[in-house]
Design a protein that fits this description.
This protein is of the alpha/beta class. The protein folds into 2 domains: 7-174, Rossmann fold; 177-472, L-fucose Isomerase, Chain A, domain 2 (3-Layer(aba) Sandwich), CATH 3.40.275.10. Helix content is 39%, strand content 23%. Helix 5 runs antiparallel to helix 12 (306-319).
Length: 473
């Protein structure tokens, strides 16, 4: 699944007693750099306003009208200041457009040997005024790590790419369509959630009963061409030579039915009642099908954990890579900053090494190993880690989150079943105390990337959720 090409609305600021050449060259540099990064732009042209910049009330109206015509395309707005700029002009344009998308404020740097009438920019100062006005208008916005940045620098590239990640998260979460497949397992009150609180953000939850899934799957003939294609897909995805053919066929039918339902309802991500009904009434684990969907950027979580799959989806939007739902499962001997991530086995193929399709050992002990084929076994290799959890706090009517970073390690670990990893998180014990004292679930989501700061800003600044950023603690 390819991510759509991002589009930014660009506002070039100007204040007319600064040199026109700074605006002309600055505008050109910004647009060239964005095009080089693969970003489309919507920007007022040089025939519509003086220098293609936004300074006057009339300029603001024209820019806002242009943005409104492209509101379905624009993911975020970049305000760039080649000189001091006119704070009212830029901010009025954002306000009048009413797009409710992330806004990044960028300022060009000066050099002390060019502080002449022809060469000085004063964007360092102008940026403060623009941000002041955005704050007064109640418009959420972002700023660069360093106050001024040259557009041709690697630093600028990283700032823009981070902003695109932020835009993806905000846009995606405000329109996410999540699928709850089956009922929450009775023993798991920890994964209860509020559809209404999620809907207030724009996150829709569609539901379907497992009986409908089983009924539709049982109506598919095993010789159906789609079943054969799905079987080939499963066998190519993960080796599982011991898996009985009839169990693989059940997996194929399940994948077809869930996929059809997702297509019919434009579902982005699913949370499935992965036990015990599936094993008792259908005869398999859904892990392999869930793993395949997650690997193809359609995240799928266990135990109808809708808040968990929302967390997975946010991580995926930020990193553009697969995510997984995990248990904070075991301490790692006597090392306080290390622990084990674990789940029966639905992590995406790209998150584990030496992948294997097996029967779920833990569930098989009580449900029968013949009924639990479909778990994915493998360990996540060393690399960067971002973890996150979204929770609907019904008691306080808020959505609350935590995010942080750490690393996957190669610490020794005897072979265990399912999908697993050893992770190191700075001040892990403090994080565990926070999770326990604030009523978070035992699940979190993870991905092999470093995107915690992106999620923290998206959740807090733009989605108005409560955020605990562990690395800021």
């Amino acid at each position: 699944m390819e991510l759509p090409t991002p589009t930014l609305g660009v506002i070039v600021g100007n204040r007319n007693f600064f040199a026109d050449s700074l605006v002309t060259s600055g505008r050109r540099k910004i647009l060239e750099q964005l095009a080089e990064f693969g970003i489309k732009t919507v920007v007022i042209d040089e025939e519509t306003t003086n220098l293609g910049a936004v300074e006057t009330w009339s300029d603001s109206q024209k820019c806002a009208d242009l943005f409104k015509r492209h509101r379905e395309e624009i993911d975020g707005i970049l305000i760039t200041l080649p000189n001091f700029g006119d704070e009212k002009g830029a901010v009025d344009a954002v306000h009048l457009a009413g797009l409710n998308v992330p806004v990044l404020v960028h300022a060009f740097p000066d050099t002390t040997d060019e502080l002449t009438v022809a060469g000085r920019r004063d964007a360092f100062c102008g940026k403060i005024s623009v941000c002041n006005n955005l704050y007064q208008y109640g418009i959420s916005f972002s700023v660069t790590e360093n106050h001024t940045i040259a557009p041709e620098s690697e630093e600028f590239k990283q700032e823009i790419l981070r902003f695109i990640q932020l835009c993806r998260v905000v846009k995606g979460m405000r329109s996410a369509r999540l699928g709850a497949v089956g009922a929450r397992p009775n023993a798991f009150q920890t994964v209860r959630y509020s559809e209404k609180l999620l809907q207030a953000t724009g996150i829709n939850v569609s539901t379907i009963d497992l009986s409908e899934i089983f009924g539709a799957a049982n109506l598919i003939n095993s010789s159906d061409g789609r079943v054969k294609e799905k079987l080939e897909d499963i066998r190519a995805y993960a080796p599982g030579t011991a898996a009985p053919d009839d169990r693989l066929t059940l997996m194929a039918k399940l994948g077809i039915v869930i996929g059809d339902w997702m297509d019919e309802n434009s579902i982005d991500a699913t949370a499935i009642q992965c036990w015990e009904s599936l094993q008792k009434n259908y005869g398999i684990n859904s892990c392999t099908i869930m793993s395949m969907m997650s690997d193809r950027l359609m995240p799928s979580a266990c135990e109808v954990d809708i808040a968990g799959v929302a967390s997975m989806y946010a991580l995926q939007l930020a990193s553009a890579t697969p995510s997984a739902l995990v248990d904070w499962n075991n301490n790692y001997n006597n090392e306080p900053d290390k622990c084990l991530f674990f789940h029966c086995g639905n992590w995406a193929k790209s998150l584990v090494s030496n992948i294997e399709l097996v029967s779920a050992e833990v569930l098989g002990a009580t449900l029968g190993s013949g009924n639990t084929w479909g778990a994915i076994q493998g360990r996540t290799p060393p690399g960067p880690l971002t973890y996150a959890r979204i929770e609907t706090d019904d008691r306080h009517g808020r959505i609350r989150t935590y995010v942080g970073e750490g690393s996957f390690t190669d610490d020794p670990l005897s072979k265990i079943s399912g999908s697993h990893a050893v992770v190191e998180v700075p001040e892990l014990q403090a994080l565990m105390r926070y999770i326990c004292k604030n009523g978070f679930a035992h699940h979190c989501a993870m991905t092999r990337a470093s995107v915690a700061s992106v999620l923290a800003e998206a959740f807090g600044e733009y989605l108005d959720w409560d955020v605990y950023h562990h690395q800021d603690a």
